[in-house]
Amino acid sequence: MRIAALIVAAGRGTRAAASGSGPKQYAPIGGRPVLAHTIEAFVGHPEIDEVKVVIHQDDGDLYAAAAGNTPKLSPPAIGGATRQASVLNGLQALAASSPDLVLIHDAARPFVSAATISKVIEALKNGPTALAALPVTDTLKRASDSGIVRDTIPRAGLWRAQTPQGFHFAPILDAHRKAAEQGLDQFTDDAAIAEWGGADVAIVEDTTGNIKLTTAEDLELANRQMASQNAWEPHTGTGFDVHRFTDGDHVWLGGVKIPHTHKLEGHSDADVILHALTDALLGALGDGDIGQHFPPSDPKWKGAASRLFLEDAARRVRDRGGRIVNVDITVLAEAPRIGPHRPAMQALIGDVLGLTADRIGIKATTTEGMGFTGRREGIAAMASASVLLPCGASV
């Protein structure tokens, strides 16, 4: 199942931004643009395959400075005159990659949690539409034009719609197209368009931290929040793995299938690079090792792709509120050659960990004919990982 995230960042939103910083999605919080934090939340989620941002036609330079370069991030789409038109443009741009599901999210919500994203995706597996929302806790009043209360509205059953809002891709694209064809532009969010199209919309309870930055005061509060979250403590972990050769015609290294005279023997796919890297991340967390979480005695992991193990380790970092800074790997082998496959390995590892290639070191060396690797009996790999965790986080 292919899942895409569409981040809507084409609005002007200038009343919230500081002087000279342009639209609010490019205003700095924690030393980086709001949009950079929002993109990171989705790029770093293991279930998201593609992230596309819808931007204003005049914001190309601002976007390039905020977006960075990660494998999951596809070229931006250009927005329309309204948010509804911008979403339609973004959906049509995504159609080329044919996602099964799409999560639509406001760029001005940079604090969306991985847990909320996961819950929306899980709800979509059991229904056509899901939206993150919060129950209304305040008493609501309806007032006249002169500001006199005319009615008190019961809050039972009322929810504040937030984003992300999740959809099966083809139906929401179809609903958006039909609304545009009929000149209907009164919808205030994408779930309302899905409702108009006849879909049931499931509520996923969100966290109060997923605020939308609307005013200058919101940006100031966000900066304070980022400052408290940025009290980081560095943690370093190392990993080592080795597998012997057996009969076969390929090896898996760094998630890449490489033709070879033999294969590596192991319960899973015996990918020494991803195994060592998984242990390095677990070591940074003080959270056991790969054998503890994925025991070879469990038939469930027979022949499993080692990417699954690395994804689990990355999730554990995120669940602790942490951030992976960089990883470094050294392969000990006489053959096969690693250099030609390095970019593909960096792309896969970057995809899983949310890192750019310049934060993923992959090197190889021989042992000059000495030892088991020198005798071509197997391959070994060493890895290190640098992780930032919030000060005081339990590890």
TrEMBL record:
<feature type="binding site">
    <location>
        <position position="241"/>
    </location>
    <ligand>
        <name>a divalent metal cation</name>
    </ligand>
</feature>
<feature type="site" description="Positions MEP for the nucleophilic attack">
    <location>
        <position position="212"/>
    </location>
</feature>
<comment type="similarity">
    <text>Belongs to the IspF family.</text>
</comment>
<feature type="binding site">
    <location>
        <begin position="267"/>
        <end position="268"/>
    </location>
    <ligand>
        <name>4-CDP-2-C-methyl-D-erythritol 2-phosphate</name>
    </ligand>
</feature>
<feature type="site" description="Transition state stabilizer">
    <location>
        <position position="24"/>
    </location>
</feature>
<dbReference type="InterPro" id="IPR001228">
    <property type="entry name" value="IspD"/>
</dbReference>
<feature type="binding site">
    <location>
        <position position="375"/>
    </location>
    <ligand>
        <name>4-CDP-2-C-methyl-D-erythritol 2-phosphate</name>
    </ligand>
</feature>
<dbReference type="InterPro" id="IPR034683">
    <property type="entry name" value="IspD/TarI"/>
</dbReference>
<feature type="site" description="Positions MEP for the nucleophilic attack">
    <location>
        <position position="155"/>
    </location>
</feature>
<feature type="binding site">
    <location>
        <position position="243"/>
    </location>
    <ligand>
        <name>a divalent metal cation</name>
    </ligand>
</feature>
<dbReference type="GO" id="GO:0016114">
    <property type="term" value="P:terpenoid biosynthetic process"/>
</dbReference>
<feature type="site" description="Transition state stabilizer">
    <location>
        <position position="15"/>
    </location>
</feature>
<feature type="binding site">
    <location>
        <begin position="365"/>
        <end position="368"/>
    </location>
    <ligand>
        <name>4-CDP-2-C-methyl-D-erythritol 2-phosphate</name>
    </ligand>
</feature>
<comment type="pathway">
    <text>Isoprenoid biosynthesis; isopentenyl diphosphate biosynthesis via DXP pathway; isopentenyl diphosphate from 1-deoxy-D-xylulose 5-phosphate: step 2/6.</text>
</comment>
<dbReference type="Pfam" id="PF02542">
    <property type="entry name" value="YgbB"/>
</dbReference>
<dbReference type="InterPro" id="IPR003526">
    <property type="entry name" value="MECDP_synthase"/>
</dbReference>
<comment type="pathway">
    <text>Isoprenoid biosynthesis; isopentenyl diphosphate biosynthesis via DXP pathway; isopentenyl diphosphate from 1-deoxy-D-xylulose 5-phosphate: step 4/6.</text>
</comment>
<feature type="binding site">
    <location>
        <begin position="289"/>
        <end position="291"/>
    </location>
    <ligand>
        <name>4-CDP-2-C-methyl-D-erythritol 2-phosphate</name>
    </ligand>
</feature>
<feature type="site" description="Transition state stabilizer">
    <location>
        <position position="366"/>
    </location>
</feature>
<feature type="region of interest" description="2-C-methyl-D-erythritol 2,4-cyclodiphosphate synthase">
    <location>
        <begin position="235"/>
        <end position="395"/>
    </location>
</feature>
<dbReference type="InterPro" id="IPR036571">
    <property type="entry name" value="MECDP_synthase_sf"/>
</dbReference>
<dbReference type="InterPro" id="IPR029044">
    <property type="entry name" value="Nucleotide-diphossugar_trans"/>
</dbReference>
<dbReference type="InterPro" id="IPR020555">
    <property type="entry name" value="MECDP_synthase_CS"/>
</dbReference>
<feature type="region of interest" description="2-C-methyl-D-erythritol 4-phosphate cytidylyltransferase">
    <location>
        <begin position="1"/>
        <end position="234"/>
    </location>
</feature>
<feature type="binding site">
    <location>
        <position position="275"/>
    </location>
    <ligand>
        <name>a divalent metal cation</name>
    </ligand>
</feature>
<feature type="binding site">
    <location>
        <position position="372"/>
    </location>
    <ligand>
        <name>4-CDP-2-C-methyl-D-erythritol 2-phosphate</name>
    </ligand>
</feature>
<dbReference type="GO" id="GO:0050518">
    <property type="term" value="F:2-C-methyl-D-erythritol 4-phosphate cytidylyltransferase activity"/>
</dbReference>
<keyword id="KW-0456">Lyase</keyword>
<protein>
    <recommendedName>
        <fullName>Bifunctional enzyme IspD/IspF</fullName>
        <ecNumber>2.7.7.60</ecNumber>
        <ecNumber>4.6.1.12</ecNumber>
    </recommendedName>
</protein>
<dbReference type="GO" id="GO:0008685">
    <property type="term" value="F:2-C-methyl-D-erythritol 2,4-cyclodiphosphate synthase activity"/>
</dbReference>
<keyword id="KW-0548">Nucleotidyltransferase</keyword>
<keyword id="KW-0479">Metal-binding</keyword>
<feature type="binding site">
    <location>
        <begin position="241"/>
        <end position="243"/>
    </location>
    <ligand>
        <name>4-CDP-2-C-methyl-D-erythritol 2-phosphate</name>
    </ligand>
</feature>
<dbReference type="InterPro" id="IPR018294">
    <property type="entry name" value="ISPD_synthase_CS"/>
</dbReference>
<dbReference type="GO" id="GO:0019288">
    <property type="term" value="P:isopentenyl diphosphate biosynthetic process, methylerythritol 4-phosphate pathway"/>
</dbReference>
<dbReference type="Pfam" id="PF01128">
    <property type="entry name" value="IspD"/>
</dbReference>
<comment type="function">
    <text>Bifunctional enzyme that catalyzes the formation of 4-diphosphocytidyl-2-C-methyl-D-erythritol from CTP and 2-C-methyl-D-erythritol 4-phosphate (MEP) (IspD), and catalyzes the conversion of 4-diphosphocytidyl-2-C-methyl-D-erythritol 2-phosphate (CDP-ME2P) to 2-C-methyl-D-erythritol 2,4-cyclodiphosphate (ME-CPP) with a corresponding release of cytidine 5-monophosphate (CMP) (IspF).</text>
</comment>
<comment type="similarity">
    <text>In the N-terminal section; belongs to the IspD/TarI cytidylyltransferase family. IspD subfamily.</text>
</comment>
<feature type="domain" description="2-C-methyl-D-erythritol 2,4-cyclodiphosphate synthase">
    <location>
        <begin position="236"/>
        <end position="387"/>
    </location>
</feature>
<keyword id="KW-0808">Transferase</keyword>
<keyword id="KW-0414">Isoprene biosynthesis</keyword>
<feature type="site" description="Transition state stabilizer">
    <location>
        <position position="267"/>
    </location>
</feature>
